[in-house]
Amino acid sequence: MSDGRQAGNDTAQPTPEDPLGVSEAAATIERIVENVEQVIVGNHDAIEDILIVALARSHLLLEDVPGVGKTMLARAVATSVDCSFKRIQFTPDLLPTDVTGVNVYNQKHQTFEFQPGPVFANVALADEINRAPPKTQAALLEAMGERQVTVDGETRDLPEPFVVIATQNDVETGQTYELPLAEVDRFMKKIRLGYPNEADETELLGRVAGDHPIRSLSAVADAVEVQRARRTVASVDVREPVRNYVSRLAAHTRDHAKLGVSPRGAIALVRASQARAVLTERSFVTPDDVQSEIESVWAHRIRSGDRARDGAEVVEAAIEAVPVE
């Protein structure tokens, strides 16, 4: 009898490989969004963007002026999911090993022991990433692309899920480094928060007049739920007409910009569109999902070659020129 009860318990415990139902995944996302909004005011779309990136197995770049809540947004999302969170403060003297970890000699055992760096977390916040030199920024490339790090010739896997949320200061350009294009291309989305409107700022001031709400925020999901929701997103159907639409949009950017969207960018758009479909409780992607995600996924990857024309304008032109078939 006890064996039967044990077997029943085993089957009742979901694993990260068991996808959630589409409605269940959508409800999980909504629950996290509502929880984050206890701290963050007026940035509903930005919260959804972070969750789309997380569910689509990628990373997000937050660029804006200081003081608009970039770090707090990342922290609130990480706190809402019961998983490991580490913050890396990027500075000009930060070394690659300060990110990835280092082998330290243990005199007692006369062996080298690996001390993992802060990148070994489910959510790694790379704060003001452009303040560190390119060599240190490059330490994140393998982690972001392969979900592993190599130190002294030994490769170690990072925990799952693994998401990098990087913030970038775009004001003090004389005191920062430009991110290499290879690194920028690893971020699925690049978004800006902007200043709050009067009503949102008034609400924000009321919330932080006493204890900051982040102090009382608790988790409403866990790492296993996120992994299961990722499986749900990965199973969303992307039919050939939609895939062809993305390919034609990508080709348009390559024909009308100095540097168009790479195949990695096209893959990122498909995965983001799958996540968007789940948010709206659908098991298939539509052209509307593609158009909803395309600017935040593609604009930062494009170099138009014209100072008067940015990547967002190239994307907008592609949407207008490429028909949905």
Polypeptide structure, described:
It is built from 14 helices and eleven strands. With 325 residues, it is α/β, with parallel strands linked by helices. The protein folds into two domains: 194 residues, P-loop containing nucleotide triphosphate hydrolases (Rossmann fold, 3-Layer(aba) Sandwich), CATH 3.40.50; 90 residues, Orthogonal Bundle (Helicase, Ruva Protein, domain 3), CATH 1.10.8. Strands 3-6-9-1-10 form a five-stranded parallel sheet. Strands 2-11 form a two-stranded parallel sheet. Strand 4 and strand 5 form a beta hairpin.
Gap between N and C termini, in Å?
A: 60 Å
Dominant shape: globular
Summarize model confidence as the mean pLDDT. Answer: 89
**Overall number of domains:** 2
Low-confidence stretches: 1-8
Describe the structure using short key phrases.
15% strand; globular; disordered N terminus; alpha/beta; 2 domains; Rossmann fold; Helicase, Ruva Protein, domain 3; two-stranded parallel ribbon; 5-stranded parallel β-sheet; 325 residues; single chain; 14 helices
Short synopsis of the structure:
The protein contains 14 helices and eleven strands. It has 325 residues and is α/β, with parallel strands linked by helices.
